[in-house]
């Protein structure tokens, strides 16, 4: 399945790509499998979304899908059907931090 | 005709300045990696077109950038810094212990012996080495392992290894410094380390002469005399004549001996430079006058150099990696400020001019002298 991913400014610059990218992910489509596919396609993003060693989300990176914050969900759970169908993107963003 | 390339890391990107031997007119390239903190950029002395840049940020962590064409194009290499065997935890401010966690690269030191080898000083404090131009990193873990690592605690800037010096006579000898911890030397390529803090005295420690806990801010050496090291400590400017076995104070007539960077003239091993800062509570120059101090006799006497520098209402700081020297016949001295200035003196400190005035806060300045 083609999964749409929206990248924040700094990550799209790192990956030298546009705001949105697509990756092919076989079912079951979970957050961790989408991120695996994203890092496979853009190795420069390794370590900048998740830690290298334990694959934990970096503290100030968030994941939104279908207007829900799924950042703290189990990353092995299936993503919403609209994301799996390519109707909605998985949004990766930097958390608001500062003042 | 020789030229210079100045590598400037700032809080919001990198800038590269080019000039000829005169160092009067400057071309500016940048910002590179806009919006990211560039803690340090440094070129290989053996292959000047190879430059490493430490690109980092609180949101997305570390990127290691490498250029093989003098900064025209860049390629991200490995940012995987995995701690090897060693202490699992270090001390924290509140006396508790915290797991070691990689935060960022503070300093790259390309080898003077092998063009593919580069060292990285990182936070939480450790030294890593790459022998393939940054494609993979391995910790020289004995530094944390040999005795005191579990007792190290961060200073206000973090638990950072920020200084790495090489001995041109001996590829196996390295010196490193860590804030709030001290200084160390290896004579066998990192397999074993020795604490080199004898002679340091720090009144902010319960035992001012303790072996550990000294907040070393920066160290420098001249390649023709690598047993002589100069150190800017949290307070005190220090010198050793025996590769760190014993230090003695050379602050002498400095107006204050607090500061961050220290540098050595390219052709005069006894000519050294510091930027005195009022105090650890007041991180700006005394009297609002930005002055570099130069000693031409190894620290016995210091003279103020302010010709061309702001001499009123100047309240900036100069950070530990933000001063460098070029190798031209008339040695150039460079430094950057937290106010976004970059200054150059093409005559060893006698006169200064700004080559940039409104950059983001400057974190690091390095200079390459090109044939």
Question: Could you characterize what this model shows?
Answer:
The complex is a heterodimer of chains A (99) and B (371). Chain A is an alpha+beta fold and 99 residues long. Chain A has a single domain, classed as Roll (Ubiquitin-like (UB roll)). Chain A has helices at 9-15, 31-41, 81-84, and strands at 2-6, 20-24, 61-65, 68-69, 90-94. In chain A, a hairpin with a 2-residue loop joins strand 3 (61-65) and strand 4 (68-69). The mean pLDDT of chain A is 95. With 371 residues, chain B is mainly beta. Chain B has one domain (3-370): YVTN repeat-like/Quinoprotein amine dehydrogenase (Methylamine Dehydrogenase, Chain H), CATH 2.130.10.10. Chain B has one helix spanning 142-145, and strands at 3-10, 13-20, 27-32, 37-43, 51-57, 61-67, 75-77, 89-91, 97-99, 104-110, 118-123, 126-130, 138-139, 161-167, 170-178, 182-186, 194-195, 216-221, 229-233, 237-240, 247-249, 262-264, 272-274, 292-295, 303-305, 323-325, 333-336, 342-345, 353-356, 362-370. In chain B, strand 16 (182-186) and strand 17 form a beta hairpin. The longest helix of chain B has 4 residues, at 142-145. The mean pLDDT of chain B is 97. Classes of the chains: A alpha+beta (99), B mainly beta (371). Chains A and B meet through helix 1 of A and strand 6 of B.
Keywords:
heterodimer, A: alpha+beta, Ubiquitin-like (UB roll), five-stranded mixed β-sheet, globular, B: 371 residues, mainly beta, Methylamine Dehydrogenase, Chain H, 1 helix, 30 strands
Architecture blueprint of SSEs:
The complex is a heterodimer of chains A (99) and B (371).
Chain A: E1 2-6, H1 9-15, E2 20-24, H2 31-41, E3 61-65, E4 68-69, H3 81-84, E5 90-94
Parallel strand pairs in A: 1-5
Antiparallel strand pairs in A: 1-2, 3-4, 3-5
Chain B: E1 3-10, E2 13-20, E3 27-32, E4 37-43, E5 51-57, E6 61-67, E7 75-77, E8 89-91, E9 97-99, E10 104-110, E11 118-123, E12 126-130, E13 138-139, H1 142-145, E14 161-167, E15 170-178, E16 182-186, E17 194-195, E18 216-221, E19 229-233, E20 237-240, E21 247-249, E22 262-264, E23 272-274, E24 292-295, E25 303-305, E26 323-325, E27 333-336, E28 342-345, E29 353-356, E30 362-370
